[in-house]
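re the bet — no i am not wrong, look at it urself. input seq straight from the record:
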Amino acid sequence: MIAVQSALEPLTILIAEDSAADRMLLSSIVRRQGHQVLMAANGAEAVDAFRQQRPQLVLMDAMMPVMDGFEAARQIKELAGETLVPIIFLTSLSESEALARCLEVGGDDFLAKPYNQVILAAKIKAMDRLRRLQATVLKQRDQIARHQTIYSTSNG
């Protein structure tokens, strides 16, 4: 297999998946793409790992014990605040209601099992582009706010 190197800088990606086999598979795919991996076996572990390590992207299984991916995604989005931390749901769910729920709780995309590494790589790159764009917008917003504060104080 040919290693696919990310054109952008490596990300730290959290894989939250209760199946050890799926965790290992995803981990090897993500590492081959040049990224660093954090792993969690359930939603509660995922929230803790996010709180401690602040990964830039999350691959989240929807159905997990202790805390499901829906609740974990909601808490991670809350912890992230204004920062965009894309969550790609990993799911074997096929009903449109379940897929819609992934997006309603803050998921940004989903990937159906079995995993296609080419599609996974493309989704990671697309989410990274969105993440970087949003970071740029926040930075520009803050610069404008600083300039307005300086202008209003000097002309006040």
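see?? Strands lie at 12-16, 36-40, 57-61, 87-91, 109-112. told u. also The longest strand covers residues 12-16. so pay up
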